[in-house]
TrEMBL record:
Single GO MF annotation: lyase activity
UniProt KW S-adenosyl-L-methionine keyword: no
Superkingdom of origin organism: Bacteria
Gene3D superfamilies to which the protein is assigned, alphabetical: 1.25.40.80, Deoxyribodipyrimidine photolyase-related, DNA Cyclobutane Dipyrimidine Photolyase, subunit A, domain 3, HUPs
Keyword Ribosomal protein: no
Protein name per Swiss-Prot or TrEMBL: Cryptochrome/photolyase family protein
Coiled-coil ranges from the UniProt annotation: none
Pfam families: DPRP
Keywords: Lyase
Length: 508
């Protein structure tokens, strides 16, 4: 063997940099199911099943090409405990001259890889992950130039220029960079949603589903009706389906929520992109082509592209810039334990019960559920950032630390003091009522401001503002809200405080 190429579970792309220069006659590709990766947090069953099945299918596809693959299964006799053992076993078996890996999505694993370079008997080369548009050092240089703090929008414009997506020369197509103002419509009650394609499990997936139920049966979540793509071909079909059927209305209803319909017009491609079954830039080019062909409007296509080359790249940049240490931040000194209903979905707050129940059933919730329902609650209730991070890393099938952590620490909890997003995404019940039909089925009254029947978001919002008013006084984007609070009567302020204390005191 000349080169041993180690591919991790979220690097399942034929064009991954660790496969560049592959010599089919001499090299071996190592892929390993290992207990430590399934247990460092107790991932949702669906996430483990998706990854193991995708890994097995990827190995098959490489073999079909004539590549030698050393595939370590979790359930074999001498299965490897962790990445390090899997690699040293494979070095002993294949006696390679060198090992090549692609940089991972987590600082924890990067530290492991750097260790390998020291401790393994052959050189270990770590290559850049070329699936991302903005390498960490370019992001760091951009961030350094931003003298008054980071703004995603400016970063996004750089990425538009860098990729040429939706550009005419150096100008944005349509004369504006951003059409977000058009992308906040509530869903009309009678609006039909497009039926989704299902990807029924094949024999490989059935095997994996049995393995996951047997080994990780106690983990959060359901495996019922598993129908997510696990091959690059099926991922491509899911992308085709999205571009044709959901993209045209993706923009309009991007922020809408409807009970019983977690997907709406969302792509549900995140787990496929993050694991390597789809290329992010390719997804954007496909969306752009639909716009150029007149098959999807600009607000939808721009919105979709912004999520991918804007937000997705931006959060990754912040992650690598701020690690290690980003996960420990707690600017708002939030210390409350995660309530049990995050695992049981049993709460009388209907919006939360729906979003958490869908998360349990599908390992998915769309962005506004994650941000403005669950995230908003975590922020207002002052939940411990470490526990909230772990929850988000466990429950979503697209969750890896590089993307989960900045979304939790920076976007929802403001635990980084406003580094990633200058203003906390806090909202009262009125926002959820406007954007969803959840409140109709809720035991709380979204219109009531105080007392045991009032929507808890209503007083938790003001209690949150009150608790942090000194800090927020320094944030000009919070000026109007603070003024509204200061104008309240002393009785009203006391009522907010006691409603919040009663509610929070009863959380278990
Ligand atoms: P669509 O709405 O169809 O969006 C298209 C694509 O844009 C997504 O597939 C995703 O790749 C990308 N994207 C959109 N928003 C973001 C964002 N804020 N950050 C990064 N990428 C984005 N996304 C993850 O992939 N993994 C996570 O672990 C994750 N954790 C999150 C935690 C919180 C608290 C919040 C608020 C958001 C999180 N997101 C995460 C971002 C976003 O919610 C999901 O990417 C999205 O819901 C996935 O569904 P979709 O593919 O249907 O998205
Ligand atoms: C999430 C995950 C799980 C559950 N299992 C494995 C595994 O057995 N083998 C593997 O290579 N990768 C797995 N992964 C994905 C890794 O955790 C991921 O590659 C690292 O966290 C780096 O992002
Ligand atoms: Fe959620 Fe409040 Fe509406 Fe109930 S009333 S669904 S708690 S926003």
């Amino acid at each position: 063997t000349r080169t041993l190429r180690f591919i991790l579970g979220d690097q399942l792309s034929r064009s991954i940099s660790s496969l560049d220069g592959l010599d089919k006659d001499a090299d071996v590709v190592l892929i390993a199911e290992v207990m430590e990766e399934a247990l460092y947090v107790r991932h949702h069953k669906r996430k483990i099943a998706f990854l193991f099945s995708a890994m097995r299918h990827f190995a098959e596809a490489l073999r079909a090409e004539g590549v030698t693959v050393d595939y370590r299964r979790l359930d074999e006799e001498d299965g490897a405990r962790d990445f390090t053992t899997a690699l040293s076993d494979a070095i002993a078996r294949h006696q390679p001259e060198q090992v090549i890996v692609t940089e991972p999505g987590e600082y924890r694993v990067l530290a492991m890889m750097r260790d390998w370079a020291e401790t393994m008997p052959v050189p270990v080369l770590i290559r850049e992950d070329s699936r991302f548009i903005c390498p960490p050092d370019i992001f760091a240089r951009w961030a350094e130039r931003q003298k008054s703090g980071l703004t995603m929008e400016y970063f996004y414009r750089e990425m538009r220029r860098r990729t040429g997506l939706l550009m005419e020369g150096d100008k944005p197509v349509g004369g504006a960079w951003n059409f977000d103002a058009e992308n906040r419509k509530p869903l009309p009650a009678r609006m039909d949603l497009p039926a989704r394609p299902a990807f029924a499990p094949d024999a490989v997936s059935e095997d994996v589903l049995r393995l996951v139920e047997a080994r990780f049966g106690e983990h959060f979540g359901s495996l019922a009706d598993f129908a997510y793509p696990v091959t690059a071909e099926d991922a491509e079909r899911a992308l085709d389906w999205f571009i044709e059927n959901a993209l045209p209305l993706y923009g309009d209803y991007q922020d809408a929520m409807r009970q019983g319909a977690p997907l709406l017009f969302h792509s549900n491609l995140s787990a496929l992109i993050n694991a390597g079954l789809l290329d992010p830039l390719d997804c954007c080019r496909r969306a752009e082509a639909a716009f150029r062909a007149g098959a999807a409007p600009l607000n939808a296509v721009e919105g979709f592209i912004r999520q991918i080359i804007g937000w997705r790249e931006y959060v990754r940049g912040v992650y690598w810039l701020k690690m290690p240490g980003y996960g420990e931040l707690n600017a708002l000194e939030a210390r409350r334990e995660l309530p049990w209903f995050f695992w049981s979905a049993e709460t009388e707050m209907n919006c939360l019960a729906q979003a958490i129940g869908e998360t349990r059933d599908h390992a998915y919730a769309h962005h506004i559920q994650r941000l403005m329902v669950i995230g908003n609650f975590a922020l207002l209730a002052g939940l411990d950032p470490r526990q909230v991070q772990e929850w988000y890393l466990v429950v979503y099938h697209d969750a890896y630390e590089w993307v989960e952590m900045p979304n939790v620490v920076g976007m929802i909890l403001h635990a980084d003091g406003g580094y990633l997003a200058s203003k906390p995404y806090a909202a009262s019940g009125a926002y959820i009522d406007r954007m969803s039909d959840y409140c109709r089925g809720c035991r709380y009254d979204v219109k009531a401001k105080a007392g045991p029947d009032a929507c808890p978001f209503n007083y938790l919002y003001w209690d949150f503002i009150a608790r942090h008013r000194e800090r927020f006084a320094r944030n000009h984007r919070m000026g109007v809200v603070l003024k509204n609070y200061e104008r309240m009567s002393a009785e009203r302020k006391a009522e907010i405080e006691s409603d919040a204390a009663r509610f929070l005191g009863a959380l278990r």
